[in-house]
Amino acid sequence: KKSEQELKDEEMELFTKYYMEWKGGRKSGNTSYMNIPRFYYRLPAEDEVLLQKLREESRAVFLQRKSRELLDNEELQNLWFLLDKHQTSPMIGEEAMINYENFLKVGEKAGPKCKQFFTAKIFAKLLHNDPYGRISIMQFFNYVMRKG
User: Fold this and answer.
1) Domains in the chain, ordered, with CATH?
2) Model confidence over 41-68: pLDDT tens digits?
3) Are 98 and 106 in contact, with CB atoms under 8 Å apart?
4) Which residues does 55 contact at the CB level (< 8 Å), separation at least 6?
């Protein structure tokens, strides 16, 4: 006959065995969690000088790349000139408008940095109840200045 402690030990052993089989069985059936990329990296500590320098340098390179994507003053002036040159009549009050065809023409002439703004999605986003299917040049230019 087994003692009470031996029975408890045996029960715990069986419980652990069955629990691990159950847990292991579920894990092997769904391994999608292994494909999730790591998204959090802890900040380097004060004494990890090399990691801090690496973080600073990578941030500086990232900011330089982003600033090269921004439109400078000359490119903005050129964009405004092209938009103004290709406006579509008739004007509504004081507001200059542009249709989709001319919008695409300006997109071709504006340069590679501006190309991201000349999409059908952006045109549709800025289209507001114009009977001729046009958008406001000023609204589009303000959109470019906010996003770019």
Assistant:
1) 71-145 (1.10.238)
2) 888 888 999 999 999 999 999 999 988 8
3) yes
4) 43, 44
